[in-house]
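Protein details
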Amino acid sequence: MANAPGTQARISIRSTSQGSKRLRRVESSKVSDGSSTDTVNAIGEDDPIGFVRKPGNRTISLSVYEEQGKPEVDWRFLRTSQEGFSLTREIVGGNRTQYPECRVSKVDPSSDADGKHMLDVEIIALGEKPL
């Protein structure tokens, strides 16, 4: 029998100014890999002769509910201060991945007529490591 699909994910932050905590106000998250594999070409060859791996950053996108009062994490402060921090993403009962060197790149607020107020947070991570 195959493994059951993951039904929950947990994201945690470890930051000097924000502390160490599990994020409880994230509606959705996405991690994009900026690295790629390309081919190597040589003069006189019709077909590529090999592969080369091009490194790249990871982009972590979070959609976070805005809060009244003091927020769970002050994403705007992290953006303006350029403070480094780490994030860990865990599929409950499954894989855990740590992003040890992160910085906030963008914080974009959005609202709708139904009273939903969100922050779209873009985080750049230099790498990842499985735990």
Remarks:
- Residues 75-81 form the longest helix (7 residues).
- The chain has one domain: 9-130.
- The beta strands are 9-15, 19-22, 26-33, 36-40, 50-54, 58-65, 85-91, 96-111, 117-125, 129-130.
- The mean pLDDT is 95.
